[in-house]
Amino acid sequence: MPKVELLAPAGDIEKLKFAYLYGADAVYCSGKKFGLRANANNLTLEEIKEATKIAHDLNKRIYITVNIIFHEEELEGLEAYLLNLSEIGIDAIIASDIHVIKIAKSLNCSFEVHISTQASVLNTEAALFYKKLGVTRIVLAREASLSDIEDIKKKTGLELECFIHGAMCTSFSGRCVLSNYCTNRDSNRGGCAQICRWTFDYPESTVPFSMTPKDLNLVEYIEKMINVGVNSFKVEGRMRGIYYIATVILVYRRLIDQIQEKTLTQQEVKYYLSILNRCANRESTPQFINKLPTNEEQYFLGRDEVSNQDFLGMVLDYDEETNIVTLEQRNYFEKGTEVEFFGPKIETFSYKVNKIYNEKMEEIEVANHPQMIVKLEIKQKVNKYDMMRLKVFDKQNFL
Amino acid sequence: MLAKEKMTNKYLLAVTNDLLNLKVKNLNFLFPIEGLSIGFKDVFKLSEIKKENAYIYINRILDKESILSLKEELKQLNENIIGICFNDLGVITVVKELNLPLQLIYMNNHNTTNKASINDYLEYVDSVLISTDLTEEEIRIILEEAEKPLVLPCFGLVEVMCSRRPLLTNFQTEFDLELKKEQVLYEGISNTAFRVVENEYGTAFYKDQYIDYRQIKHEKIGFYYINGLNLTQEDIEKIINNEKMEKTESGFLNKKTYYRLKEMNECQK
Asked: pTM above 0.90?
């Protein structure tokens, strides 16, 4: 089975480090300019330089999004920006505007050019158009079926990247300007106000019209996607926090590794699905990969997206002699709380909090202050940057 | 052999059944094609198209099946069809592969927003639709610098969103409502109405107000594009005769869009 890439989002350097630590082979981020998440933190050129060093020291890859649709005013500075990225040595840009591709090629930039999902490529002939421009990888439209993917791979030989997890646009990417008309914020330059999450009056109904898709989740199709030639498996969510990134990336890392080692069971697939759905606080489905989505793949009324407080703590230290773990608290927990520890180098395990200590090793009843330092005694070894979450599912029940 | 017609300051009308008998000089008909287009109530089979110098409209994002269907359709083209307006860049590869002497017009509205990109596309096609997401100043810069004649959106409903999902059907199914393929929806915060048209290939949202760009004239305009959806023959005649029309707006001609909230807030102070 060919080696494939797990590609994670990273809105800043901290998230990038967690993405790599938890198993991503590559990350994608945006600079301060020209990316479609204009109101996220994003990275300065200095930070991109630092991020690239981190990536390459770990023998991993980093891609920078340059995927807005340019107006005249943004063209100024584009060449200099691409030359900077080239000099820094990033591995690829993700672009959708034809001019970005042409300029990058004419400047002999050192990086590869990947076509963004914004270009909504769904067929071989469109992929071949981009191949002739020098593009090496296509991020396929989220509307691609397994059959579309297989055909494109066979007939183009291009690297293919597919979104496997996260939020979906209602529209074909790049073909929506609802935000422009409702809020004057340009969706194709990074200002999307997510109007497809709003409601609309529908003449013959007291229920408002809505069209929000459930999230994408392709856990059950990863093996088939590897078999038809997908090279890179991409997780959406540059605005998401480290807990989300760590959880989702670790699940997909283990899933992909188990598929390649041929050790994955259906019970484990079910367990992974439960973890992923819980983490995102909303339902997810395979969407377009196997059929045209129906009302079952959308949210209407009664959307259940209440934020949970599962992320309880981050491991800062573990003393193997005393079995004391030092944690930075992230959400309330108390004596008696059933928790799980998970991390890139440990098997997820359960633990019941019997005693909680403060920094001075004085026993306390609850951990109730954000980022307070607490200590627990646990026999199983954990590592710095492992995480502690509320135990919701017991893996044993799935096996 | 199909002829290539010169584009100079003519009208290109996305046609409906109601507009088929229209007789106006300097106007070419653009036919949305059955199975390959989206957002139009009336679609046409290639064999039904009898108008001279007609263009066909393929505005779907094409998947494996639909591109095969496109190839089959194009093998049976009548000589009266002289060009294709399209959204999916795969069409360029197909037309080249079949060696068809058709005019190619790239009409991916929200993707053609600067002179450099438009000139890049013009290396592969005969013309490009200028985006409706631009100010008049931006449009004029593009027209000045364009290396070939361009298509200017002149009048009609503007598609503002296009989804592969059957969004009306899904909503109507969920709440047991009468199944309708066209509906006007209203968004209260922005006070905006959208006309929504669905077919089996997806759903298109139009701003339910006609953009009117008739004030823009330029020698580089090959076609003034009119979307005939919801317009009558009389309306088209009025548009071409530069008469006043109701329910119009100037889109973003005089209104710049923003994408950084900081800039937007500063602008609103």
From this structure: yes
